[in-house]
């Protein structure tokens, strides 16, 4: 017995015991239908309850009243529908062919009038849209022309600057003069600048100002 208790003590730990206490089985309130009739109630015949005579008569009276009222409602609705059909047919029969033609022409006239009003509104809207579109296109053309003019001015300014720079270019005609000038005025890039912008060359002992021609 002690060994059995020790075995169960090892199986049912504290955490497992808490889990089992929190576990709740789901039960049916009554026996499911698929189990069939119990053997103890298999051959039992339920007793049919007898109604009181006054209760039976009262139920019959209420049922007859209900059927009578529903029949009256159905007859009333059927008569209303038949009367509406007769009135509609009478109105159609009373119209002569001339009246039908006049009514048709009136409908055509109204339709034509509505079409004209719609066409006038449409033309007005389209005219406004065309004017707005034309103004927008003209504005874009003016802006494009202005951009082209600005671009042309920038190009001409660059051309003028390049023409001014081209005066100092070495060409086939002035290459001999450029060589002689380079030999007479040699340029030395061995110099340094101080914080004040003074130029200090290796061959000079005194500082000199920055000369653009150097």
TrEMBL record:
TM regions (residue ranges): none
Where would one find coiled-coil regions in this protein? 45-72
A Pfam family matched in the record: MRP-S26
Keywords from the named record = Coiled coil, Mitochondrion, Ribonucleoprotein, Ribosomal protein, Transit peptide
What is one GO cellular-component annotation here?
A: mitochondrial small ribosomal subunit
Recorded superkingdom: Eukaryota
Is Ribosomal protein there in the keyword field?
A: yes
Q: Where is the protein localized? A: Mitochondrion
> Which family does the record claim for this protein?
Belongs to the mitochondrion-specific ribosomal protein mS26 family.
Q: What is this protein called?
A: Small ribosomal subunit protein mS26
